Amino acid sequence: MASLRPTIIRGGLESLYFSGAHYWLRPFVGGVGAILTLHHVRPPRPGRFQPNRLLEITPRFFNRVIEDLWRSKVDIVSLDEMHRRLVEQDFSRRFVCLTFDDGYRDTLKVAYPILKRAGAPFAVYVATSFPDRLGELWWLALEAVIARNTRIGLTIEGQNRTFDCQSIAEKRALYDELYWWLRARPTETEMRELIRNLAAYHAIDIAAFCKELCMSWEELAELAADPLVTIGAHTVSHPMLAKLPDSTARSEMDLSRSVIEAALGARPEHLSFPIGDRTSAGPREFAIAAELGFKTAVTTRPGVLFPEHGERLTALPRISLNGEYQQLRYVRVLLSGSATAMWNGFRRLEAA
């Protein structure tokens, strides 16, 4: 069933585009702007088993998106400028913010040159355990375990179970099953312990992913020196905040800001909630972010921005540039607000 989801979504985007519905709906559901979510911009990886491909887009597609935004006369603005427009209700021109989660090295090496040439501001939300080389990109560890084995073992509900994963179809199905099973664990601690044990048993070094893929503090300092770049907070350990006690969730948000300030010399004023869906961030987390004084905080709940979001600045929706849908027409549909309006039942403030 999970493998059908991209096909269904793609069909919906195609229908909205070729019927012209996205164009006619835009005046009613398009809002005043949007925040785009990105993770990786890099050349395609080889191999058919890539369950995390949704987190990466190609440089060619990214460059086309930036060019298309300029041609459509949409302002590409910083988070501070977005904040100003929402607070002052200045909506004379539509705008888009570009945001990168996690702090991957390809943001510096691949995406940054494209954005620099275009003079486009953007933000990078940094989970501080990643440049500290202590972080756990556990979703990549899970992918590696399944990719490198034809059978894996895992203790579930106190029982030792084995899973065959020889074919690509079996690997995809197993990844989906285990990913969502891990996400459903009642505590972050339990989930992390399970993935650590799984990785250790199958000789996967979780820590190596940070060193290989994430920027160091020196690389982040190089990026942060450009006025086009805003560095935002993304917690310390990239947890699902909603599963943490109040004090721990607050500490994750606040400490990450302090660590970034100590390393880069500027205190972040903007926050991205890790994972960012309803299971990871909700009213409690929105309130804590506001209490800590963040100007804005973003989720991954799909949606465009409306004037009313000026009153909900720590619960902002975003639109993902998803690696499964690398077509300009899909981006145009998403920025029209039509697809997310339908997804949200035409509720403007679904993220709040």
**Cα Rg:** 20 Å
Strand content: 15-25%
Give the biggest sheet.
8 strands, parallel
- CATH class category label of the largest domain: Alpha Beta
The total number of structural domains is: 2
Give the low-pLDDT segments: none
Order of helices and strands: HHEEEHEHEHEHEEHHHHEHEHEEHH
Label the structural class. alpha/beta
Choose one word for the global shape: globular
The CATH topology assignment of the largest domain is: TIM Barrel
- Helical proportion, percent range: 40-55%
Please state the second-level CATH architecture of the largest domain: Alpha-Beta Barrel
Overall average residue pLDDT = 94
For the record, give the distance between the C-alpha atoms at the N and C termini, rounded to a whole number.
Answer: 29 Å
CATH homologous superfamily designation of the largest domain: Glycoside hydrolase/deacetylase
| Tally of individual helices | 14
Per DSSP E runs of 2 or more residues, the count of β-strands stands at 12
Describe the protein in words.
This protein is an alpha/beta fold and 352 residues long. The protein folds into two domains: 2-131 and 216-343, Alpha-Beta Barrel (TIM Barrel); 138-207, no CATH class. It is built from 14 helices and twelve strands. It has helices at residues 5-18, 21-29, 59-71, 79-88, 105-118, 138-147, 168-183, 188-201, 206-213, 217-224, 246-264, 283-291, 328-335, 338-343; strands at residues 33-38, 40-41, 56-57, 75-76, 95-102, 122-126, 151-156, 159-164, 229-233, 270-272, 296-302, 316-320. Strands 1, 4, 5, 6, 9, 10, 11 and 12 form an eight-stranded parallel β-sheet that branches. A two-stranded parallel ribbon has the order 2-3. The protein has a two-stranded antiparallel sheet with strand order 7-8. Strand 5 (95-102), helix 5 and strand 6 form a beta-alpha-beta unit. Helix 6 packs antiparallel against helix 7 (168-183). The longest helix is centred in the C-terminal third of the chain and has 19 residues, at 246-264.
